[in-house]
Amino acid sequence: MIEVLTATDSQKLLHQLNALLEQESKCQPKVCGLRLIESAHDNGLRMTARLRDFEVKDLLSLTQFFGFDTETFSLAVNLLDRFLSKMKVQPKHLGCVGLSCFYLAVKSIEEERNVPLATDLIRISQYRFTVSDLMRMEKIVLEKVCWKVKATTAFQFLQLYYSLIQENLPFERRNSLNFERLEAQLKACHCRIIFSKAKPSVLALSIIALEIQAQKCVELTEGVGCLQKHSKVCHCVNPVNSYKRN
User: Fold this and answer.
1) 160-202 tens-digit pLDDT
2) Which single residue of 21, 56, 100, 128 could bond 138 by disulfide (Cβ 3.0 to 4.6 Å)?
3) H or E stretch including 187?
4) DSSP single-letter state for residue 192
5) Torsion angle, CA of 114/150/144/42, rounded to 10 degrees?
6) For 205-219, how does the pLDDT look when each residue is reduced to its tens digit (9 = 90+)?
7) Which of 228, 217, 222 lies closest to 173 in space, CA to CA?
8) Among 1.10.10.10, 1.10.472.10, 1.20.120.420, 1.10.150.130, what is the CATH number of 31-144?
Protein backbone atom coordinates (compact mmCIF):
# COMPACT_ATOMS: atom_id res chain seq x y z
CA MET A 1 0.00 0.00 0.00
CA ILE A 2 2.63 2.58 1.06
CA GLU A 3 4.90 1.81 -1.87
CA VAL A 4 2.28 2.58 -4.50
CA LEU A 5 0.89 5.83 -3.14
CA THR A 6 0.92 8.46 -5.86
CA ALA A 7 -2.02 10.75 -5.04
CA THR A 8 -1.18 14.18 -3.63
CA ASP A 9 -3.50 13.68 -0.65
CA SER A 10 -1.82 10.41 0.25
CA GLN A 11 1.62 11.95 -0.03
CA LYS A 12 0.57 14.76 2.30
CA LEU A 13 -0.79 12.23 4.79
CA LEU A 14 2.44 10.25 4.67
CA HIS A 15 4.44 13.42 5.24
CA GLN A 16 2.30 14.18 8.31
CA LEU A 17 2.72 10.60 9.53
CA ASN A 18 6.49 10.78 9.22
CA ALA A 19 6.51 14.03 11.19
CA LEU A 20 4.41 12.48 13.97
CA LEU A 21 6.61 9.38 14.11
CA GLU A 22 9.65 11.60 14.50
CA GLN A 23 8.06 13.63 17.31
CA GLU A 24 6.09 11.01 19.27
CA SER A 25 8.74 10.10 21.85
CA LYS A 26 9.46 13.70 22.86
CA CYS A 27 6.37 14.38 24.99
CA GLN A 28 5.32 11.04 26.43
CA PRO A 29 4.91 9.90 30.06
CA LYS A 30 7.85 8.25 31.79
CA VAL A 31 7.11 4.53 31.71
CA CYS A 32 9.01 3.95 34.96
CA GLY A 33 6.79 6.54 36.67
CA LEU A 34 3.62 4.89 35.37
CA ARG A 35 4.83 1.52 36.64
CA LEU A 36 5.31 2.98 40.11
CA ILE A 37 1.69 4.13 40.06
CA GLU A 38 0.56 0.67 38.93
CA SER A 39 2.48 -1.00 41.76
CA ALA A 40 1.24 1.37 44.48
CA HIS A 41 -1.10 0.01 47.18
CA ASP A 42 -4.45 1.71 47.62
CA ASN A 43 -3.99 3.11 51.14
CA GLY A 44 -5.47 6.56 50.55
CA LEU A 45 -2.07 8.25 50.72
CA ARG A 46 -0.50 7.36 47.37
CA MET A 47 -1.49 7.72 43.76
CA THR A 48 -2.73 4.42 42.32
CA ALA A 49 -3.77 3.17 38.90
CA ARG A 50 -7.38 2.98 40.10
CA LEU A 51 -7.43 6.63 41.17
CA ARG A 52 -5.76 7.72 37.95
CA ASP A 53 -8.29 5.78 35.87
CA PHE A 54 -11.23 7.28 37.80
CA GLU A 55 -9.86 10.76 37.19
CA VAL A 56 -9.52 10.14 33.45
CA LYS A 57 -13.12 8.88 33.33
CA ASP A 58 -14.18 12.16 34.94
CA LEU A 59 -12.26 14.06 32.25
CA LEU A 60 -14.02 11.99 29.59
CA SER A 61 -17.38 12.95 31.14
CA LEU A 62 -16.39 16.62 30.99
CA THR A 63 -15.28 16.22 27.37
CA GLN A 64 -18.66 14.76 26.48
CA PHE A 65 -20.59 17.35 28.53
CA PHE A 66 -18.96 20.28 26.72
CA GLY A 67 -18.92 18.52 23.34
CA PHE A 68 -15.15 18.85 23.03
CA ASP A 69 -13.10 16.99 20.46
CA THR A 70 -11.50 13.62 21.19
CA GLU A 71 -8.15 15.27 20.46
CA THR A 72 -8.72 17.53 23.48
CA PHE A 73 -9.39 14.52 25.70
CA SER A 74 -6.36 12.67 24.33
CA LEU A 75 -4.10 15.66 25.02
CA ALA A 76 -5.52 16.10 28.53
CA VAL A 77 -4.71 12.45 29.30
CA ASN A 78 -1.22 12.91 27.90
CA LEU A 79 -0.61 15.95 30.13
CA LEU A 80 -2.00 14.17 33.19
CA ASP A 81 0.11 11.06 32.66
CA ARG A 82 3.25 13.09 31.96
CA PHE A 83 2.72 14.96 35.23
CA LEU A 84 1.83 11.89 37.31
CA SER A 85 4.80 9.96 35.94
CA LYS A 86 7.14 12.69 37.20
CA MET A 87 5.53 13.86 40.45
CA LYS A 88 4.29 12.21 43.63
CA VAL A 89 0.72 13.47 43.77
CA GLN A 90 -1.43 12.99 46.84
CA PRO A 91 -4.92 11.67 46.06
CA LYS A 92 -6.54 14.78 47.59
CA HIS A 93 -4.82 16.94 44.95
CA LEU A 94 -5.62 14.71 41.97
CA GLY A 95 -8.85 16.50 41.05
CA CYS A 96 -7.08 19.84 40.80
CA VAL A 97 -4.23 18.32 38.77
CA GLY A 98 -6.64 16.55 36.41
CA LEU A 99 -8.80 19.61 35.84
CA SER A 100 -5.71 21.76 35.26
CA CYS A 101 -4.47 19.34 32.58
CA PHE A 102 -7.93 19.29 31.04
CA TYR A 103 -8.17 23.10 30.98
CA LEU A 104 -4.73 23.40 29.39
CA ALA A 105 -5.78 20.94 26.69
CA VAL A 106 -9.06 22.77 26.09
CA LYS A 107 -7.30 26.12 25.68
CA SER A 108 -4.77 24.51 23.36
CA ILE A 109 -7.17 22.63 21.05
CA GLU A 110 -10.65 24.15 21.17
CA GLU A 111 -11.74 27.40 19.58
CA GLU A 112 -11.48 30.32 21.98
CA ARG A 113 -15.23 30.99 21.91
CA ASN A 114 -15.85 27.45 23.18
CA VAL A 115 -13.47 27.62 26.15
CA PRO A 116 -15.50 27.77 29.38
CA LEU A 117 -14.72 30.11 32.24
CA ALA A 118 -12.62 28.54 35.00
CA THR A 119 -15.44 29.23 37.48
CA ASP A 120 -17.92 27.31 35.32
CA LEU A 121 -15.50 24.44 34.83
CA ILE A 122 -14.97 24.07 38.58
CA ARG A 123 -18.69 24.37 39.30
CA ILE A 124 -19.68 21.74 36.74
CA SER A 125 -16.88 19.45 37.97
CA GLN A 126 -18.28 19.87 41.52
CA TYR A 127 -14.85 20.46 43.04
CA ARG A 128 -14.29 22.58 46.14
CA PHE A 129 -11.06 24.31 45.14
CA THR A 130 -10.94 27.91 43.85
CA VAL A 131 -9.99 29.49 40.56
CA SER A 132 -6.74 30.61 42.21
CA ASP A 133 -6.01 26.99 43.15
CA LEU A 134 -6.63 25.92 39.54
CA MET A 135 -4.42 28.64 38.10
CA ARG A 136 -1.66 27.84 40.57
CA MET A 137 -1.83 24.15 39.66
CA GLU A 138 -1.80 25.01 35.96
CA LYS A 139 1.51 26.78 36.44
CA ILE A 140 2.96 23.81 38.32
CA VAL A 141 1.83 21.42 35.56
CA LEU A 142 3.31 23.67 32.88
CA GLU A 143 6.65 23.80 34.69
CA LYS A 144 6.79 20.02 35.10
CA VAL A 145 5.99 19.37 31.42
CA CYS A 146 8.59 22.02 30.48
CA TRP A 147 5.87 24.28 29.04
CA LYS A 148 5.33 21.78 26.21
CA VAL A 149 1.56 21.54 26.13
CA LYS A 150 1.30 20.31 22.57
CA ALA A 151 2.10 16.63 22.20
CA THR A 152 1.81 13.85 19.65
CA THR A 153 -1.19 11.79 20.74
CA ALA A 154 -2.70 8.44 19.82
CA PHE A 155 -5.72 10.29 18.44
CA GLN A 156 -3.57 12.07 15.86
CA PHE A 157 -2.14 8.74 14.75
CA LEU A 158 -5.61 7.18 14.67
CA GLN A 159 -6.83 9.92 12.34
CA LEU A 160 -3.84 9.61 10.02
CA TYR A 161 -3.81 5.82 9.84
CA TYR A 162 -7.55 5.80 9.19
CA SER A 163 -7.24 8.46 6.47
CA LEU A 164 -4.40 6.58 4.76
CA ILE A 165 -6.40 3.35 4.76
CA GLN A 166 -9.50 5.14 3.42
CA GLU A 167 -7.50 6.95 0.75
CA ASN A 168 -6.40 3.66 -0.76
CA LEU A 169 -9.77 1.91 -0.75
CA PRO A 170 -12.26 1.94 -3.63
CA PHE A 171 -15.00 4.47 -2.90
CA GLU A 172 -17.65 1.79 -2.45
CA ARG A 173 -15.58 0.07 0.29
CA ARG A 174 -14.86 3.14 2.40
CA ASN A 175 -17.54 2.27 4.94
CA SER A 176 -15.71 -0.91 5.92
CA LEU A 177 -14.09 0.81 8.90
CA ASN A 178 -16.11 3.07 11.20
CA PHE A 179 -14.07 5.91 12.69
CA GLU A 180 -16.53 6.57 15.52
CA ARG A 181 -16.02 2.99 16.74
CA LEU A 182 -12.26 3.49 16.63
CA GLU A 183 -12.61 6.75 18.59
CA ALA A 184 -14.75 5.05 21.22
CA GLN A 185 -12.16 2.31 21.64
CA LEU A 186 -9.36 4.86 22.00
CA LYS A 187 -11.32 6.70 24.70
CA ALA A 188 -11.79 3.43 26.56
CA CYS A 189 -8.06 2.71 26.29
CA HIS A 190 -7.21 6.15 27.68
CA CYS A 191 -9.23 5.24 30.77
CA ARG A 192 -6.75 2.46 31.62
CA ILE A 193 -3.22 3.41 32.62
CA ILE A 194 -1.78 0.26 31.05
CA PHE A 195 -2.25 1.77 27.59
CA SER A 196 -0.34 4.95 28.48
CA LYS A 197 2.83 2.85 28.51
CA ALA A 198 2.45 2.13 24.79
CA LYS A 199 3.72 4.51 22.12
CA PRO A 200 0.85 6.48 20.56
CA SER A 201 1.51 4.99 17.13
CA VAL A 202 1.41 1.46 18.54
CA LEU A 203 -1.82 2.06 20.43
CA ALA A 204 -3.56 3.64 17.43
CA LEU A 205 -2.51 0.94 14.98
CA SER A 206 -3.41 -1.79 17.49
CA ILE A 207 -6.94 -0.41 17.79
CA ILE A 208 -7.33 -0.37 14.01
CA ALA A 209 -5.86 -3.85 13.58
CA LEU A 210 -8.14 -5.28 16.26
CA GLU A 211 -11.22 -3.65 14.73
CA ILE A 212 -10.30 -5.03 11.30
CA GLN A 213 -10.05 -8.49 12.84
CA ALA A 214 -13.39 -8.08 14.61
CA GLN A 215 -15.16 -6.85 11.46
CA LYS A 216 -13.39 -9.46 9.29
CA CYS A 217 -12.32 -6.74 6.84
CA VAL A 218 -9.77 -8.95 5.09
CA GLU A 219 -9.21 -6.40 2.33
CA LEU A 220 -7.73 -3.97 4.87
CA THR A 221 -5.18 -6.37 6.36
CA GLU A 222 -2.49 -5.71 3.77
CA GLY A 223 -2.81 -1.95 4.20
CA VAL A 224 -2.42 -2.18 7.96
CA GLY A 225 0.61 -4.41 7.48
CA CYS A 226 2.22 -1.79 5.24
CA LEU A 227 1.49 0.97 7.75
CA GLN A 228 2.91 -1.21 10.51
CA LYS A 229 6.10 -1.74 8.54
CA HIS A 230 6.34 1.94 7.61
CA SER A 231 5.90 2.96 11.26
CA LYS A 232 8.34 0.28 12.46
CA VAL A 233 5.67 -1.13 14.76
CA CYS A 234 6.01 -4.76 15.84
CA HIS A 235 3.07 -6.91 16.97
CA CYS A 236 0.66 -3.99 16.79
CA VAL A 237 -2.28 -5.82 18.43
CA ASN A 238 -0.33 -6.70 21.58
CA PRO A 239 -1.21 -3.69 23.82
CA VAL A 240 -4.94 -4.22 23.39
CA ASN A 241 -4.73 -7.99 23.66
CA SER A 242 -2.64 -7.78 26.82
CA TYR A 243 -5.41 -5.73 28.44
CA LYS A 244 -8.05 -8.25 27.36
CA ARG A 245 -6.08 -11.05 28.98
CA ASN A 246 -6.04 -9.07 32.22
Assistant:
1) 999 998 877 666 566 778 999 999 999 999 999 999 999 999 9
2) 100
3) helix 179-190
4) S
5) 70
6) 999 999 988 888 777
7) 217
8) 1.10.472.10
